[in-house]
């Protein structure tokens, strides 16, 4: 409980007093910036902002040009070149607008504070005239009317920027959006496991406990079209453990999917599709370097840590009459990250 006394203070129940009202401290004293007092600094900043907006315009032009002139193609080098040019162009486009606009606002536009007493919602005609004049004065104070080159460059950069997104987006209209192709790979029954990148068949007797082999399907090099796409889906990591350490190497139907401690799992992380290839022999853990999802090779590559939600799909393997490792079938579930159609059937 509190009461007011004649000195316009509040007296609390515990005897403490506080002022009932506080004096308005007013606005802080304005400290002029260097650009406010030195015309040379102002001109230098104007040139810098103009250069940033111009860089943004050039970045947008580069993105549009690269989209048509540098298609990804079928080779790793062409994909890398296309992605680098598109990425750098888009970065310059966005950074030019962001840094240039921020620099313009903080250095060139007025930073004075203004206050206005609250009044009735419907102002008088005289007040409205004053408000319009204040807006005009504010525009004049901001320098927008005097810096037409900067305004033109900024508006042009903002107007062209959407092209860096719309051109690739509209260019992909009608493209192949069939996600069923991700449900199956080129692995099939009896297909031998080959080393990556030397492309040699793998004999089971050559794989010792603790070994880790990077594997591709037999016949991959013979493909004329789509070789990179098929490899991206079908890459496998082969590991040999002591059979006594395996806690899970069977299908849900009870079929054995390993051979004498040798297991094969998809290298494509079920989080966002990064290559999983860091194996720790002591714990039998497999680590994805992108976001640290960790899988237990000894227990069906189940997730033990990280953002991944599904185990790595296992490739059922066995040996043929010559002792070479072969696939029993394709993966029985889709590889890689989750998409909107997960079922394999």
What are the SSEs and their pairings?
Elements: E1 2-4, E2 9-12, E3 17-19, H1 34-37, H2 39-69, H3 76-108, H4 125-142, H5 148-171, E4 193-195, E5 212-217, H6 227-234, E6 236-240, E7 262-266, E8 278-280, E9 285-287, E10 294-296, E11 302-305, E12 317-319, E13 325-327
Which terms summarize this structure?
345 residues, elongated, 4-stranded antiparallel sheet, alpha+beta, Rieske Iron-sulfur Protein, 34% helix
Q: How would you explain this protein's 3D organization?
A:
Pfam families: QcrA_N (PF19297), Rieske (PF00355). Residues 1-38 are annotated as: Disordered. A hairpin with a 6-residue loop joins strand 9 (285-287) and strand 10 (294-296). The protein is an alpha+beta fold. Strands 4-5-6-7 form a four-stranded antiparallel β-sheet. Strands 8-9-10-11 form a four-stranded antiparallel β-sheet, with no helix packed on it. The radius of gyration is 33 Å and the shape is elongated. It has helices spanning 34-37, 39-69, 76-108, 125-142, 148-171, 227-234, and strands at residues 2-4, 9-12, 17-19, 193-195, 212-217, 236-240, 262-266, 278-280, 285-287, 294-296, 302-305, 317-319, 325-327. It contains six helices and 13 strands.
* SS element count, helices: 6
CATH superfamily of the largest domain: Rieske [2Fe-2S] iron-sulphur domain
CATH architecture of the largest domain: 3-layer Sandwich
Q: Provide the CATH top-level class of the largest domain.
A: Mainly Beta
Widest sheet, order of strands: 4-5-6-7
Whole-number mean pLDDT = 83
Number of strands: 13
CATH fold name of the largest domain = Rieske Iron-sulfur Protein
Order of helices and strands: EEEHHHHHEEHEEEEEEEE
Number of domains: 2
Parts with pLDDT < 50 across at least 5 consecutive residues: none
